[in-house]
Amino acid sequence: MQKIINVLAIASGVVSTALVVSGVFVYVNRDSIVDSIKSQAIEAVTGSLGGGLGGAGLGGSLPTGANDLGGTPQASAPQGSSMGLSVPGSAF
Question: Do residues 90 and 84 touch, judged by C-beta distance below 8 A?
């Protein structure tokens, strides 16, 4: 019985030591781990776009559409009694 208890105590000590060592490892290397996860996430997002931004993420610029605005006729608001649905019982 004593041998079983000793084996369980040693196994518990090994598990506790492994847990503490892994926690210290993560704490010491947390900056590099975060940077690695960020770069993987950015790569996954830009890879799934399939070039849909046209190189905007690589220093290109997005089109603003400003050159399409010149000379475009503007729609006017409706005038008179045809300004929408009438309210029943109203004098309009």
Answer: no
Contacts of 86 (CB under 8 A, 6+ apart): 92
From the first residue on, what is the mean pLDDT of each consecutive set of 10 residues in the chain (92 residues)?
Answer: 96 98 96 94 82 53 61 64 64 56
E strands along the chain, which residues? none
Contact in structure between 57 and 46 (CB atoms under 8 Å): yes
pTM for this model (two decimals): 0.43
Q: In this structure, are residues 62 and 53 in contact, taking their beta carbons and an 8 Å threshold?
A: yes
* Token pair recorded at residue 22: 């892994």
